[in-house]
Amino acid sequence: MKRLLLFTSFLLLSCMAADYAAAAQSIKGDDKTYDDMFTRELKNTTDIATRTRLNSDDVPAFVTILYRDELLKLGINDIFEALCLVPGVEPYMDNSGARQLIFRGEKEKGKVKLLIDGMDVNNALRGSVYYYYDFPIELIERIEVIRGPGAVLYGSGAMSGVINIITRTSDPWSRSSAFGYAASYDTYRGGMIYKHDFHNLSLGIDGYYDQTNRQVKAGPDKGGSYGRSNENGNSYSVGMVAESGGLKFTSRFKRSKSGVAFGRFFYLEPDRTRDGLINSTFLSELMYSRPLSDTISFTAKGGYSYYKETVDSMATPLELGGMIFEVEYSEDKIYADLSIKAMMPAHNQLLAGFRFENHQQHKNSFRAYLVNGSGENLMPDHVIKPRVARHIGTFYFNDQYHINDSIDISFGLRYDINSDVDNTINPRAGIVYRIMENLNMKAMYSHSYRIPSWIELYMNVPVPFRGKPDISSEKSDTLELGLIYKNGDSHIGFNAYWTQINDIISYDSSSITYSQHGRHTFGGAELAIKQNFQENTSLDMNFSYVYGVDADNDKLPDTASWLGNVIFLHTFDFGLTCGTHLRFATKRLRETGDSRNDLKGYVVLDETLTYRIGPAEFTAGVKNILDDDVRYPAPQDTYPKDYPRPGRTYMFRISYDF
Amino acid sequence: MQIINHKICHKIWLSLLFFCLSLPVSSGNASLLRQDLLRIHASIMPKTVFMDYDFKKRLVNGKIAICILSKQNDIPQARELARYINKLYSNGINGFKITTNVVSYQKFIKSSCPGATIFYILPAGRHIMEQAINKIGKSGIIFTYSPRYLKYGAHVSLKIKYRVKPVINLKALKKSGISLRPALLRISDLYSPDRKL
User: How many whole angstroms separate alpha carbon A459 and alpha carbon A361?
Assistant: First the structure.
């Protein structure tokens, strides 16, 4: 309550200060000429282009934008599938069924920041976001992905990439719509978006419910048994955005429940009647922004988020005692952020702000017992050390200086004061050089970091490893260089990068604790080519190569060196769009000491047909037409044949715009 | 090459075969238009009218009438553009009411778009776009979806770079007898047939 009062006072004071400043600078006179009106509107369109990343070729970052229309026409189902289209991004999955991503050769593990309508999803317990990857594409307007670090603006965890999801509900232009989806493995989904403009209030509400009975043939497991993975589950979400004047309120609740796919201890789940893994999140944010003058604008935002994780699963088969795991954990976060954006003289675009965050752990219970052990608790009764809290104070600024029409330079800095780990300073510098009318060059340097998760710091249970309270943040340095060529209907982007992540937090099997040592070094390149043929056909291709080694110069396991996507979209005159998507990954190496052959690569081809009649759209698709054997790597001595993924599957979608 | 083995190559070839099967077999096609670009155009295009010195003479009943021309298959997207404009300028601009009218090229060539002050032209075949532009003649400003179509005789489009910049076809404007305010000319790029956009 005290936290809430302090936070509310901070917001109110900020808003009053902004109002006062705005009043002091009120526009003198009312002689708006047509010229002013036009140039102001042009500036406004530049803001829209920047906000929607339409001019991303001219900003110092490598950005990929995924648009809803194209994603639907490719039969993409959720955020996870969409992100696999991004250059340098590879999917994988762990034994619990949590789908995760490898960005530029580095496994996610809290190093990717996920925002939905600007609200941060990453939790403090693990820094993870996997429970949002099943969010359906139908509710999304676009996905913006910064490939590479973005710590100056996004803080801890924005190390390998930043994903910003913009929902249709928050997009002021989108329509109300309803949709239904059905796919193989008894997968069904339905949902709707309702938007309405009242007098001065714009309101959007969305919701969906999804369920699946996915079970993929798997095995042998750790005990040598064959069977099926347990990926049954359901998820739902409701979201709301209300906007009036400069005030915007956004909130979303999401809950997902799924079986522990390949078993907590790598045994195919013997008891599938249990709840499995349940993740619930509630995110909310109140934002107030207003221009103080023609060149200065002010934004104050504050938010509250809640994360809850429940586990109820049988981790070992009955012949090994049938160990039951029961976990109930929750945490919340409250934050306030105050920033000023100013167009300074000499074309300086300055952003500066302060931010306060307070994370607090609440529920924290752990039970492990044998089915026949009469409830005897086998391990400590807390997941992590009790009553953990984290406070973070931040100052950040970023200056983009438009020297002339050929050169922009930018410099940013973020300073974080963390209550339970080391403080960090994260600088960033970049240059965009327009060599010719159609050719841009970008060069960037970024320092970024990841605060250790509470599991890594304070885990109380030796399954699989205990936390280590004296570890510090992982830090990374990244250099990027790229060229972008645009000519009429052609767009070619090429970039190379070098990244070194220091103070890697990993398992130490000898002491069964997390430890911190060594580094990962990556070098790689990404090529993205887009060619439009008239306005009705597009060919989109991207290829990436990464070479990653550890401190001993051993190649990093489990990741593919080469990845590629080829996307072809063609719209016929009778309203039918044909979408073809080919994705490939080359072999994945094994860990040192793992005697298995390298995990072979895969080629997946998806075909989708979309037919639009007026406001209704029908999509039917076949995924993995070639029925290729796609597997994600499993650790050694667990599943010798790794984690299999579904073969050929079918999908059907219908949507209607009101 | 060891990295990509034969099996993967074989599958890639097989997939390419599927690609070939899905290649276009029809000549007239609907367009894959960028909604975000249409939104930007919806915001700036109606105000372009004020850059014409004589815009008041072109208004009928004091209304800024926007005629959106599209292929029959792109009518839904043209209607989306009209919806964006109506949403943005539901109260008009500076006391001038805004009206939008979506018309297919075929219909326009037969019966035109009376009273229009701005014509927004979506992509179509070269011949049909040129025919429509000729028909518009001196009736109003012709705004296009892409600067590429300025070569057919359209007047204004937008280039999305570090800043959004208008691109102007001075020759076509002169031919249509439209004189633009110097403010617009100052901040715009001028179209030249030798320069690729």
Answer: 13
